[in-house]
Amino acid sequence: MRILHHLPLSPFSRKVRLVLSEKRLPFELRTEKLSERRPEYLALNPANTVPMLVEESGLAIPDSGVICEYLEEAYPDTPLLGRTLGERVEIRRLVAWFDGKFNLEVTRNLVGEKITKRMVGRGNPDAGALRAGYANVSGHLDYIGWLAENRKWLAGANLSLADFAAAAHLSSLDYIGDIDWSLSPPTRDWYARMKSRPSFRSILNDRITGIVPPPHYADLDF
Amino acid sequence: MRILHHLPLSPFSRKVRLVLSEKRLPFELRTEKLSERRPEYLALNPANTVPMLVEESGLAIPDSGVICEYLEEAYPDTPLLGRTLGERVEIRRLVAWFDGKFNLEVTRNLVGEKITKRMVGRGNPDAGALRAGYANVSGHLDYIGWLAENRKWLAGANLSLADFAAAAHLSSLDYIGDIDWSLSPPTRDWYARMKSRPSFRSILNDRITGIVPPPHYADLDF
């Protein structure tokens, strides 16, 4: 069986879970405690990161960007990276935006400080980082809302990896109650469409010990 | 004419310059002062980052990862991402390693603190970051040396984007004198092979006002 080593609130892991489900590729989830630095895990992925996908053949694929490019090449049905060169540039640009800029400015400052830091035993959240994270959220919600209002999906006419990258980050932040959906109705409407997809179910059903998500988290009509 | 907006010491810009040259695609370099936040630049690349490639058709492609995937698809001659799925995973894994982990642990702490920070007017280098950068270099040189000793090129039998990603980071660090080549003879031998490629010439000829590289920087027999 295909195995995805992950952490439940890692947006990068969530993006890969969504892509695997959209492509109808069955997989088993394994939570990887990175702080244990397991030798067997490091042998496959010396960077000691999640997600890492291990195919039934034994092929180990670390890094969510590498995994998504691999899945698109190995399983081209349900294409998520676009067809023309221009579409592919726009989709990858937005994936880089969410996994790079959005992650740095928002997710890392909030999910990273509140959750990841505690899990790896690196102390309390940094107040400056939290402030920066909260200050940056609304501009990003506006940008997503602008894309959602001007296009059918975030990168254009078709649902793509850009939507899943964005939704993965927002879902992690939403779990810890850090998204105020009233700030951007178009973003909320787009996210409601994402949430109602079957691929989203397992993510909405995830519960992390000791952290209770807000009531609207798994609600499709929030 | 194809235009690459860049910064001379950005390893991400250097990687794209190397790839364009290897693929024999002519281009013009434009230094982009990101701190000016030019509206015309932001319109094409709201993330306000270098590199950004603008094709003659007007297609604007930001982010070095997006650019390299685009170039491979648009100009498949001189392939740099491998042929089999396994080769492509290994090449992209190493590119993610150098542009992610290596950049975070080494380049950002040294080139970022000493050069980029000054250029964008964000003050003096942070002593802790410099210490971390210096502490992390030697382990990374060992890893590159291990790859170079066990494989013909870093990702396997063929020269690939992994070699250019690694060489781009090392060349930026070498310009500011922060690589002690005696630490890893196999890394030095591999880098000597990279340096002697015609695609490397323009990078070795770059000079940044006010920063003189060490004498060995452009020397092919260093």
From TrEMBL, chains A, B:
Pfam families: GST_N_3 (PF13417). The keyword Transferase applies. It comes from Lichenicoccus roseus. It comes from the Bacteria. GO terms for molecular function: glutathione transferase activity. The keyword Transferase applies. One of its GO terms (biological process) is glutathione metabolic process. Residues 1-79 form the GST N-terminal domain. Homodimer. Residues 84-215 form the GST C-terminal domain. PROSITE patterns: GST_CTER, GST_NTER. This is Glutathione S-transferase family protein. Gene3D superfamilies: 1.20.1050.10, Glutaredoxin. Keywords: Transferase.
